[in-house]
Design brief:
Shape: rod-shaped
Structural class: mainly alpha
Number of helices: 8
Helix content: 55-70%
Oligomer: single chain
Radius of gyration: 39 Å
Order of helices and strands: HHHEEHEEHHHH
Distance between the termini: 22 Å
Length: 302
């Protein structure tokens, strides 16, 4: 004989209410965190893809950061080599003017100023590390402090940098060597300053010997500029390469982020709709449960 009772029905309603409460709590958590799931295990088959995407994202972000750092170093190299080129070009024009006019006023000062700018550019540093010193970081790569110090000092003693250049990986299987050494850009220009150091002070019109030395130095400056411009052109090529690789890394980083967001991030508009529906369902469940709780068989047996 079947038994008439309200307890089994109430138990079924209680289970349904608990399920509705659980769903509502999960939806509230999605709304609070903005994520579809609280952990990777809950993502199911997308977990492996997202873990792989996060690994690739970290790699591309590292490439992007390295590209920015290398690009800064190359820009500093370019700026200092540009300063050096402008300096010696201006000096050459001063020398040619003095030769043509036979007027030496201001030439001695122009030479001294140019040498100081040449030295400062060669010994430029960033963050306490010499730009043109190679792997040598314990001192400046160019030693003579004054024009007079160049007399009797060969280039091998004036330049103390090594020839080590840095290398960095900026993409999968792509290593970029970068860096400029002081002797590579300054050796032949240093010869011109050694020649000018032999001039001595120019008072009034330069002598024939001084004119000859200035003409020789002007020619040596032209020769030195060939090396300087060649190295700077290669530096510019590396700048373009690094910029391209950095842009590529940034694009790949955005792609990985979009994959991760698509698989992990919740659609907040959809979550808001679900929240409203589940709240309505839960309220209806409470109402039905309350009505069932008021039911009594005795009301119908009277």
């Amino acid at each position: 004989m079947s038994r008439v009772a309200t307890i089994p029905l109430q138990r079924s309603m209680n289970i349904a209410i608990q399920r509705s409460q659980q769903l509502l709590a999960e939806t509230q958590q999605k709304l609070a965190t903005g994520k579809k799931a609280p952990d990777y295990a809950s993502l199911g088959t997308e977990a492996v893809r997202n873990l792989s995407a996060r690994s690739l994202l970290a790699q591309q972000d590292a490439y992007k950061t390295a590209s920015a750092q290398v690009s800064t170093a190359l820009s500093l190299n370019d700026a200092n080599m540009g300063t050096m080129e402008t300096t010696v070009n201006t000096l050459k024009q001063d020398l040619l003017t003095a030769i043509g006019t036979r007027e030496g006023a201001g030439v001695t000062e122009a030479i001294a100023t140019a040498f100081n700018q040449f030295r400062n550019a060669l010994n430029a540093s960033s963050g306490g590390v010499s730009l043109f010193g190679g792997a040598q970081t314990d001192g400046p790569p160019f030693l003579p402090n004054t024009l007079a110090d160049t007399i009797g000092t060969p280039a091998s003693a004036a330049f103390v940098n090594d020839n080590v250049t840095a290398s960095v990986r900026l993409s999968d299987g792509v290593d970029v060597e970068y860096g400029v050494t002081a002797n590579a850009i300054g050796t032949k220009l240093y010869t011109a300053f050694q020649t000018l150091a032999e001039l001595g002070p120019i008072i009034g019109a330069p002598t024939d010997a001084q004119v000859a030395l200035m003409a020789k130095a002007a020619g040596e400056i032209d020769t030195g500029l060939v090396d300087l411009r060649s190295v700077n052109a290669e530096n510019g090529r590396k700048q373009a390469q690094v910029e391209t690789l950095g842009t590529r890394a940034a694009d790949r980083s955005l792609l990985m982020k979009s994959i991760i967001e698509r698989n992990e991030d919740a659609d907040l508009g959809e979550v808001a709709i679900d929240l409203a529906q589940q709240k309505t369902i839960l309220q209806a469940s409470y109402s039905v449960f309350a009505q069932l709780a008021d039911l009594s068989l005795g009301n119908y047996l009277r």
